[in-house]
Write a structure and sequence with these properties.
- The chain is mainly alpha-helical.
- It has 3 domains: about 110 residues, no CATH class; about 60 residues; about 100 residues, no CATH class.
- About 60% of the residues lie in helices and about 0% in strands.
- The longest helix is centred in the last third of the chain and has 25 residues.
Length: about 300
Amino acid sequence: MDSPWKAEMCRILHTPGHEETRDLLDEFLLEHETEIARVLRRAQSIARLVCRDRETVFSYFGQALMQMIQNRWRAKNAANGTSQVFNYSHNLPAILEKETRYWIREDRSRGLLDGTVGVPGDGTRDRRGSLVEKSRQLFEIEHQYVPSDFELVGFHNDRMLATRKDAARQGVLITKDALRPVTAVSLNDPDVAVDARLSTIDEPDVGAPERARKLADVIERCEQIDIEQKLTRHRRLRRSPVCAANVARAYFARHHEGIFPTRRELVETLGIIEPAARRELTTQLERVLGVSREVFADFLYES
């Protein structure tokens, strides 16, 4: 019981009533306000929590305290009493400081904190940012001018690879995008002015006219195949034949989006029901793909 705060915590844990426990917690917080403030300042400094109000960091301390009381320090087999974890614990202020930093880190990883500290992985970014700033200073000393982004990225990565055992695994290598200032973007109010990644640049598709011309050639060849099959057919079918041209049109209908249907989707699109027509669809699809390979052979080699 010589450890700081342990006698008060033991009394709280042995108190059966909820109201009495809350009153004892209030007394504990008021009595040790100075020591708690010292713990909070250290936790806030180590966690790099940027906040002007005392209530934010104090709420994390309260969350840590309640979690330890309910889940770690209270006896599991009785309504009141202490657990073995509490009995063998020493230096409760250090334990609560560590738990406070844990809950700050959890909220930060979920993006629940505002400002630049609200970015997941903020600690890693801060460490990497300090290394980049050191590289910038060394570059200016060595070359006597301010480096460009491209020069800074190359200089920094070369320095990290030369001084670190495994720079890639340690996450200290950077790209040009890493030099952009990091801010937290609200999911409810995204804005291109805040995050440039929300904007896209539509580039003209230079090959679209050529592909359209070649697809028209494919369909024309498939129509010729359909005419030849019709002329060579010895007996009349009781069902409608599956035309290669229709298969080609359905297959390449959304080629500009990079989407090509499966066989099942082709069956639904063309309204094929009979098993014989399904087998004919497979044959016609193979013909269409074969024709398209021939037509686009030179196009593929040129690209």
